[in-house]
TrEMBL record:
UniProtKB keywords: ATP-binding, Cell inner membrane, Cell membrane, Membrane, Nucleotide-binding, Translocase, Transport
Domain ABC transporter: 5-256
Lineage start: Bacteria, Bacillati, Actinomycetota, Actinomycetes, Streptosporangiales
Coiled coil residues, start to end: none
Species of provenance: Actinocorallia herbida
Source species, domain of life: Bacteria
Topology relative to the membrane: Peripheral membrane protein
Protein name per its UniProtKB record: Peptide/nickel transport system ATP-binding protein
Region Disordered, residue ranges: 311-338
Principal cellular location given in the protein's record: membrane
Pfam families per the UniProt record, alphabetical: ABC_tran, oligo_HPY
Molecular function GO labels: ATP binding; ATP hydrolysis activity
Keyword rRNA-binding: no
Homology family: Belongs to the ABC transporter superfamily.
Length: 338
């Protein structure tokens, strides 16, 4: 599968008055054409920072310290090199949690779609732009495109606004779409509709999709592969079924045990403790102080074990046995064995 997105060794740091923080540490990620990759993890683990970095949307105190981002083979971001402005909107579409951030309350939807095309596809005639606008709304399952094109955002329901936000992201036929918690604010039925819409979009157009969510069930419904983040690092990655049925990182297992699932019958088990704030000076496994399997060896930095697309960052990975249907995390391998 041709890679539309290749992220290698990405390290993102933030300067703050208190300390220099490590927001993303050594992230490797690959998304193929027509592939959906989920990024999951607790709040504050760095999911948004990672996806925003891919398109150069960095706050003033944040910088890329190492690694690179390639889009369709083109190097778009690395320390001291940032051409993401040229791909944002044109080759990469973005959908965020709050449709209000994508839509301008002052302009009708038809105008906003035409504006995006005028900026990124300037060769189109007015008639072609109108045709494309109606077509993209149709693809979003919007049955009354004329009414929507003539409406202001506040005249649409929340679900419809999010569909329009997705339409704005994909009307330019991008190679990659980044969706960051874009279903979180929606009710469950609308969430399911948006997920189905993404699935159809990827199947029909071959676009690559990065889907950021804290909702493992949603990720399991939609994603081909999953990358689990913790403390700014990708700690486990692999095909969705493998990661969710036989998690290898204790954090992934804890996350699974703490969410209700269709397989869960027993009580839900939370992960004690809180996610760390990681400084650039931090050494060792970020999860060690919350991990039942941690040993003294976890105080040293932990490397990645496995292939690029499938592996785990842990000195005491779980044994890979299927995740028990009770919602309890599987047992770990012997601490001393690593
Ligand atoms: N500009 C910044 N300066 C300092 N710290 C930051 C900055 N931006 C983000 N952070 C910190 O980086 C960490 C990761 O934040 P991020 O928003 O990427 O997490 P997340 O996994 O997307 O969480 P959520 O799901 O709550 O959005 C958090 O601790 C956050 O406070």
């Amino acid at each position: 599968m041709t890679a539309v997105l290749e992220v290698g060794g990405l390290r993102v740091e933030a300067e703050t008055a208190a300390a220099d923080l490590l927001l993303v540490d050594g992230a490797d990620l690959r998304v193929g054409n027509g592939e959906i990759v989920g990024i999951v993890g607790e709040s504050g683990c760095g999911k948004s920072t990672l996806v925003r970095t891919l398109i150069g949307m960095l706050e003033g105190n944040v910088a890329v310290a190492a690694g690179e981002v390639r889009l369709g083979g083109d190097r778009v971001l690395a320390p001291g090199h940032d051409v993401t402005a040229s791909v944002r909107g044109a080759r990469v579409g973005t959908v965020f949690q709050d449709a209000a951030r994508s839509l301008d309350p002052l302009f009708k939807i038809g105008y906003q779609l035409r504006e995006v095309l005028a900026r990124h596809r300037p060769g189109l005639t007015a008639a072609q732009a109108a045709e494309k606008s109606a077509a993209v709304l149709g693809r979003m399952g919007i049955t009354e495109p004329d009414r929507v094109l003539g409406s202001y955002p506040h005249q649409l329901s929340g679900g419809l606004r999010q569909r329009v936000a997705i339409a704005l992201a994909v009307i330019t036929d991008p190679e990659l779409v980044l969706a960051d918690e874009c279903t979180t604010a929606l009710d469950v039925t609308t969430q399911a509709e948006v997920v189905a819409l993404f699935r159809d979009l990827v199947r029909d157009t071959g676009v690559g999709l990065v889907f950021v969510t804290h909702d493992l069930l949603l990720a399991s419904d939609l994603c081909d592969r999953i990358a689990v983040m913790y403390g700014g690092q990708i700690v486990e990655a692999g095909p969705t079924a493998r990661v969710l049925e036989s998690p290898r990182h204790p954090f992934t297992a804890g996350l699974l045990a703490s969410v209700p699932s269709r397989h869960t019958e027993g009580p839900l088990v939370g992960i004690p403790g809180a996610a760390p704030r990681v400084t650039t000076a931090f050494q060792g496994c970020r999860f060690a102080d919350r991990c039942a399997a941690a040993s003294a060896a976890c105080a040293d930095d932990v490397g990645w074990t496995g292939a690029d697309d499938e592996g785990v960052r842990c000195r005491h990975p779980l044994d890979g046995a299927p995740h028990p249907p009770t919602g309890q995390p599987p047992t770990t391998t012997d601490k001393e064995g690593h």
